[in-house]
Specification:
- There is one protein chain.
- By secondary structure, the protein is of the alpha/beta class.
- It folds into two domains: about 170 residues, Rossmann fold (3-Layer(aba) Sandwich), CATH 3.40.50; about 90 residues, ProC C-terminal domain-like (ProC C-terminal domain-like fold, Orthogonal Bundle).
- The chain is about 55% helix and about 15% strand.
- Strands 3-2-1-4-5-6-7-8 form an eight-stranded mixed sheet, sandwiched between helices.
- 1,4-dihydronicotinamide adenine dinucleotide binds next to helix 1 and helix 4.
Length: about 280
């Protein structure tokens, strides 16, 4: 499979690391980015081919991954329009366009791409860097079964995939798992701060907080029991955990988390609306 990336930043680098030499040889991956340092690192690390601007190698790919910031998307894809039109006139295959950008809607992308129909939107997350990502995906109507499978293969190279039946739900995925790693890091930072305020060193606090997250997340992942039961098992009546969770309830921590996740989803929707306006 030939794969092209428009944008070679953080998320593209995570995907390239998962794909190169596993799903396809590095030489079958082409990365376009105006930043020479990003290209050099990807070429040196994975043997990918590179270009500072969109060229024919992009439309020769079966899958074109759009990995620029939402605010740059419209401008970044404009040079693709004549190349896609030429490829279709020559009767070549229509590449699948796989966008990882938060918010940007398939209908707007299709319009910016001159009516290109084969678009999958997806929302990965940064644990993709260590092959432990999770991505939500949704296919627009012009996507073939083979293209859907290709999109799944690309994202499975860096973790698990969850397919959605309705594009409006991808903003929820953005709020939960796309932005989610930041919430976990925030919680780890808070636990480390508490550890220091209780007299431990910053290093000890960080080690305890990180290992607690890793252990609890692995336990939740591996256990057949509901997460609620796992929580209750830690919580002895009248004990220390009960004191902490009661304090969290009184401070409205759960409600605040729910509100925060909804704010991320709403921002995704808003970005799509803003960028989709002509
Ligand atoms: N960082 C994250 O946790 C996640 C990010 N995303 C989405 O991934 C996309 C990329 O995000 P990051 O990799 O974090 O950003 P980044 O800033 O690390 O990478 C963006 C890259 O695009 C390049 N670029 C800018 N204009 C360009 C153009 N016209 N043509 C080609 N390349 C161009 C930049 O030089 C940069 O290397 C965003 O749309 C974001 O919404 C999705 C899931 C998670
Ligand atoms: O914060 C953002 O906009 C991107 C999308 C999901 C995670 N990071």
């Amino acid at each position: 499979m030939k794969i092209a990336f428009i944008g070679g930043g953080n998320m593209a680098a995570a995907l390239v690391a998962g794909l190169a030499g596993k799903v396809t040889p590095g030489a079958n991956i082409h990365v376009v980015d105006p930043n020479p340092a990003a290209l050099e690192a990807l070429h040196a690390g994975h043997g990918v081919t590179t270009a500072a601007s969109i060229d024919e190698a992009v439309t020769a790919a079966e899958v074109i991954v759009l990995a620029v910031k939402p605010q740059s998307m419209r401008e970044a894809v404009a040079p693709l329009v004549p190349l896609l039109a030429r490829a279709s006139q020559q009767g070549s295959h229509a590449p699948l366009v796989l966008s990882i950008a938060a918010g940007i809607r398939s209908a707007d992308l299709a319009r910016w791409l001159g009516g290109h129909a084969a678009i999958v939107r997806c929302m990965p997350n940064t644990p993709a860097l260590i092959g432990m990502g999770i991505s939500g995906l949704v296919a627009s109507q012009g996507v073939t079964a083979a293209q859907r499978q290709a999109a799944d293969q690309v994202l499975k190279a860096v973790g698990a995939t969850v397919w959605l039946d309705d594009e409006s739900k991808i903003d929820a995925v953005t709020g939960v798992s796309g932005s989610g790693p930041a919430y976990v890091f925030y919680f780890i930072e808070a636990m480390q701060q508490a550890a220091v305020e209780l007299g431990l060193t910053a290093e000890q606090g960080l080690e305890l907080a990180k290992a607690t997250f890793t252990g609890a997340a692995q336990l939740a992942a591996q256990s057949a029991e509901p997460v609620t039961l796992l929580r209750e098992r830690v919580t002895s009546k009248g004990g220390t955990t009960y004191a902490a969770l009661t304090s969290m309830e009184e401070s409205g921590v759960k409600a605040a988390i729910v509100t925060a996740v909804k704010a991320a989803a709403a921002r995704g929707r808003e970005l799509g609306e803003q960028m989709g306006r002509d």
